[in-house]
Amino acid sequence: MFSIFSKKHDESLDLSFLQADMHSHLLPQIDDGSESMDQTIHFIKEMKVLGYKKLICTPHILPDVHDNNPTIILAKLKEVQEVISNQKIDITIEAAAEYMVGPEFQQTINNNEEILCFGKEKFVLIEMSYAYPSQNIEQVIFDLMIKGYQPILAHPERYNYLLGQKNVFESFVQKGCLLQMNLLSLTGIYGKPVMMAAEYLMKKKLISFIGTDMHHQGHLNIIKKFATNKKFHQKVQELNLLNQNLI
Ligand SMILES: [Fe+2]
After folding, report:
1. Sheet holding 92-95, edge to edge
2. How far is the CA of 147 from the centre of ligand 1 (A)?
3. CATH fold of the domain at 17-246
4. pTM summary value
5. Among candidates 165, 61, 79, which has minimal Cα distance to 115?
6. What is the pLDDT of residues 63-82, one digit of tens each?
7. How far is the CA of 58 from the centre of ligand 1 (A)?
8. How many Å lie between the centroid of ligand 1 and the Cα of residue 185?
9. Do residues 153 and 181 touch, judged by C-beta distance below 8 A?
10. In b/e form, how buried is each residue of 112-128, taking b as 16+ CB within 10 angstroms?
């Protein structure tokens, strides 16, 4: 698959320039990510080898599919932190969530219920369905900002129904919503239209965060290979990423 990214690799390169990952599904057995504590610890060790100093895990909160809440997520985080500490793995693990924008999340905001966020800016990671846009996305962005949160839309390049719309990404940024691109999108694993949209987001410097959105070993293998891509390292320097500020 043709990509602006060359096949040239430099094995000495890693992802340490990012410092922090703010989108992953590494907490065990609470969504479609890691299937066990052993797997979680393996993924965390591998992310450390890639150069990350902090991992902010973001389990799905998706009613009737992944019925998570702050209590469940923070309890699971504590379990992982204990194992990390016992095994003396030198990395910081935190947690927030990836909130599906829908009526339930609107209610959470309206009722002033606890919302898991990260960073001093109170970043909140939100997503839409891959099949259709969330009707209340603009309202949710507005309401989060009014309540002092900074919304980040996860992987805008993956919403196929947006890809034909002119200036759709720019309009999210103009509304005050930051954008997070998946590193995996650049590799072509989600298909060519997604890869091209990711390249467009980079070219237009619309991205504030790069996340792994790692769910499983297959993702990790691809990320490890792409981490040494020379062209990616050149291009990414042109962005004003905020990942490093999360340390
Ligand atoms: Fe995700």
Report:
1. 20-21, 54-57, 92-95
2. 24
3. TIM Barrel (3.20.20)
4. 0.97
5. 61
6. 999 999 999 999 999 999 99
7. 7
8. 12
9. no
10. eeebbbbbeeebbbbbb
